[in-house]
Amino acid sequence: MDTGDAAWVLISSALVLFMTPGLALFYGGMDRTRNVLNMLMMNFWCLLIVPVVWAIGGFSLAQVPFDNDLIGGFDAAFLRDLGILQDGGSALLTAVFLGMFAVITPALISGAVADRMKFSAWAVFVPVWLILVFVPVFKWVYGGWLGQRGSLDFAGGTAIHVNAGIAALAAVLVLGKRRGWPGEGHPPHSMPLVMIGTGILWFGWFGFNAGSALGASGQAIQAFTNTFLAAAAAGLSWAVVERLRDGHFTNLGAASGIVAGLVAITPGAGFVAGMSPIWIGLATGVICCYAVGLKTKAGYDDALDVVGVHFVGGLVGSLAIGLFAEPEYFGLDFMAGLFHGGDLELLLEQALANGVTIVYSFIVTGLIMLALKATIGVRVSEETEHNGLDLAEHAETAYSTGTASLAGH
Amino acid sequence: MKLITAVIKPFKLDEVKEALKAAGVTGMTVTEVQGFGRQSGHTEVYRGAEYTVDFVPKVKVEVLADDAAADDLAAAIAGAAKTDKIGDGKIWITAVEGVQRIRTGERDTDAL
Question: CATH number for the B2-100 domain, one of 3.90.1110.10, 3.40.50.2300, 3.40.50.300, 3.30.70.120?
C-alpha cells in the first residue's frame, strides 16, 4: 500500500472518530440541562459497543467478500485474514476506517429519541440495529446488489444518513412523544455547545468524505473541496431563510444548515465538482430549513430533527448525484448525471437505492423497537422524564452549582 | 426599622449601589432572581419554533434602614434604577421587628 494513501486514510479514520463526540455536543447543547448527560452517553455508548461488534463480525458481514449481493460472510470475523503482512495493512485499514462510520451511524438516531428512551433499551438497540439494519444496507450499497446496478454513494448518504434518518422516524413512532410536546417548549440549553459540536463535525467530515477516496488522490482533494463548499452554502441559505422568515440570523440556523450541507454532499463528494457543491448546498439549506417544521404538522416527535436534517438532507444529496455527477471530470467509470450528458438512468438508480433503504430500514427498525417495547420496555417513567434522565439513568448531574441550575432552567 | 426590597434591571446594579452608598448605607444584600411583571417574558425562535420565556433575569437588592431613612433610600434606589422603559422593577418597604449584629450582639438601630 502506498504510504501517502495509508497516512491519509489513517488520519481520516481519526477525524471520523472525532465526529461522534462532536455529534454528542451538537445534540447535547440542543437538549435540556437535565438530559444532556444522557444524550452524551447515548453517543459514547456507540463508541464503546460498536467497535467490539465490528471486530467480532460486523465488518466481515458488511464487506467480506466484497462482491456478495446481499450479505458478507464470516471470513473476516474476529479480524481473521486481515494480517498486515499480507497486503501491508490495506484490508485492516479499510476495516478500521469503516468501523468509524459504523460508530456514528446509530449515534445519529439518538437525537430523535432524546429525553425519554430508557438507556438499557438504547444499549440493546445499538448493536442489534447495527447488525440487522446498518450491516445489510451497507453491503447492498457497497459491493452488493444496489451498488452493482450503478447507484452511487461516495461516503454514505444512502447507507448512513438516509438509513439512520428513516430509522429515527420508525423509532420515535414506536417510542411516542415527549410529555408536553409540542405545547411545552424544549429550547436548547447551551447554544455554545451546539456551535462547538458543529465545528467538530465539519472538521471530522473532511475525513468522512475525503477519506472515502481511500487514498491521497485527486478525488480526495475534490471531495475535500466539496465538503468545504457545500457546508458553507447550506449554512448560508438556511440562515438567510430564517432571517427573511423569522427576522434573525440564528446560531442554530447556521449550525443546522452546515450539518445539513455536510450530509447532502456526502453521497456525491467524489462524483461532483466545480460549482455543483454550492448548488447542492444552497438547495439543501432551504429544503431542510422547511423540512424540520414537518414534525409538528405530522405529529411525530423527532426531538432534535434527525429526520429533517439527516434523512431529508441525505435524500436530497443522493438524488442530486443524478443531476450533477461528472465521470469525465474524474476520469472514472460511473454513470453521468442529467446536467453532464447523462440520461435519467442514474437518477432512477439513486431513487431505487434510497427507496429500498427507506423501506427496509423503516420496517426492521420498527420491529426492533416493538420487540424492545414488549420485553425490557423503551420509555422511562413519567417521573424520570420530568426530573431528567441524567440523575435517574446515570446518577450524574451536568451542572451542579446552584446558580447554574437556576439560570439554566 | 424597615426592610427595603428592590427588584431592578441587572445592568443598573452598580448605579443603585453607588446611590445607596452616597445616601449613607453601609451594607446591602444582592441576589440574582427571575420573574415577570408587566414587561412579561420574551420569545426565542429555534428552527422556526417559537418558545416563550416567562421569567426575566433581575437583581434583588435588600437594605435594612432606620424608619426615618427608609423613604429617602427608596427614592435613591428609584432614581438610580429608572430608565423610563418597561421592566424597571419595583421597590417595597416592610416593617422589621428586630435586627441583631452577630459579632457584637448589638441590637436594632445600633446593628444597622
Answer: 3.30.70.120
